Amino acid sequence: MTERTQTTEGHHHGHEHDHGHAHEGHHDHDHSHGHGHTHDPDHSHDHDHGHTHHKGLKGWLFELFVPHTHDAADSVDDALEASAQGIRALKISLFMLLGTTVLQFLVVLVSGSVALLADTIHNFSDALTAVPLWIAFILGRRAATRRYTYGFGRAEDLAGLFIVAVVALSAVLAAWQSVDRLLHPQALENLGWVMGAGLIGFAGNEAVAIYRINIGRRIGSAALVADGVHARMDGFTSLAVVLGAGGVMLGFPLADPIVGLLISAAIIILLWGTVRSIGRRLMDGIEPELLDRARSTLEGTPGVVDVRRVQLRWVGHRLQGAATVAVDDGTSIRLAEKTMHEARHRLRHALPKLDEMTLTPVPASG
Questions:
Q1: What is the mean pLDDT of residues 120-127?
Q2: CB under 8 Å to 312, separation ≥6 — which residues?
Q3: Among candidates 230, 206, 225, which has minimal Cα distance to 287?
Q4: In the predicted structure, residue 67 carries a pLDDT above the cut 70
Q5: In whole angstroms, what is the distance from residue 175 CA to residue 141 CA?
Q6: What is the CB neighbour count within 10 angstroms for residue 163?
Q7: Residue 147 pLDDT more than 70?
């Protein structure tokens, strides 16, 4: 018997329930998993387990630039509400970044600072990345079709790739401008304005970063978190602009282009964490603690004798999955359906972002 279940209210793709027979089990399931879990499935979702926590300066930097993409303690479990919050976050942060960019560009025209120009380019590119992600959130709300039977949630992950490409391109452009300024030095003017614009850029970008990352965690969007990390990178490049201007004021005119080069190098290095996060989503990678949570929840469901196989994947900011569970050999179809219903209820609480879970009951002796 195969039961395809919708586990989140308000989000549906038009899938039908497919009821077969409980004896149509597979014999090649993976039995290597242990069954001695003692987790309480009704409470396991209240904590975020399994992340690697680095200590000291490394841990602080890791959390700043490679934050977790989900926060189960304060999650949004309704798909439509999650998309609405994502779009709202993009709208607000887009206008904040555009305002910051315009202000900084005016100072670039007055001062001629190449470091501030690099920072302004990053801010503008960060504002632009909100557009494809906005479109992706809207696409993700469309119902599944005969051609796209799983819906359009993957558009969000593709937008994440676009974000990575834009960040990399902006870093290359900033490096080119800095090298050109090293080869052809130019005097800087109005250094006080440059430092002020750098501080404003940092404040604006960090506010956007905090907002996007928090919303991205709540709705489970790796792309929105990546966009927040992009804004945070730009915020720190703004602080670097302040350092470059300070170096020029102290009598080191090459400080400005050197800082521009350091900005570009730092962005490329820190971008790797975002590339891994987006790439993992596109390859259907899943956080191990989410898989463990689903397995322990199923194992704790009355009537479930064994959990043969569990699969999960992110599609945009929502989860989909499948599981094969063993029930007693003499279990009737009706009782098996009741067990699957209870398992569905428990999974809904354990994994708030779960949209669809295909549950396949098989006889324990199969």
A1: 74
A2: 286, 290, 291, 294, 319, 320, 321, 351
A3: 225
A4: no
A5: 39
A6: 26
A7: yes
Number of structural domains the chain divides into: 2
If you count them, how many residues does the chain have? Answer: 366
Residue written as token pair 């690697």:
52
Place of tokens 């170096």: 247
Query: Each residue of 224-233: pLDDT tens digit?
Result: 888 888 788 7
How does DSSP classify residue 17?
P
* pLDDT, tens digit, 9 for 90 and up, residues 312-330: 998 888 889 999 999 998 8
Looking at the structure, tell me whether residues 206 and 94 fall in a common domain.
yes
Among residues 214, 209, 229, the alpha carbon closest in space to that of 76 is found at 214
The helix (run of H) or strand (run of E) holding residue 160 is helix 155-183
**Residue 361: strand, helix, or coil:** strand
Contacts with 280 (C-beta within 8 Å, 6 or more apart), sequence order: 222
Q: Are residues 339 and 222 in the same domain?
A: no
pTM of the predicted model as reported, rounded to 2 decimal places: 0.62
Domain finish residue from 216, 250, 282: 282
Three-class secondary structure of residue 219 per DSSP:
helix
Mean pLDDT over 28-53 rounds to 40
Integer Cα distance of 148 and 226 in angstroms: 25
Domain hosting 230: range is 56-282
CATH number of the domain at 150, please: 1.20.1510.10
Phi and psi at 313, nearest 5°, equal -155, 155
> Would you state the pLDDT for residue 327?
93
Spatial contact of 81 and 135, defined as CB atoms under 8 Å apart = no
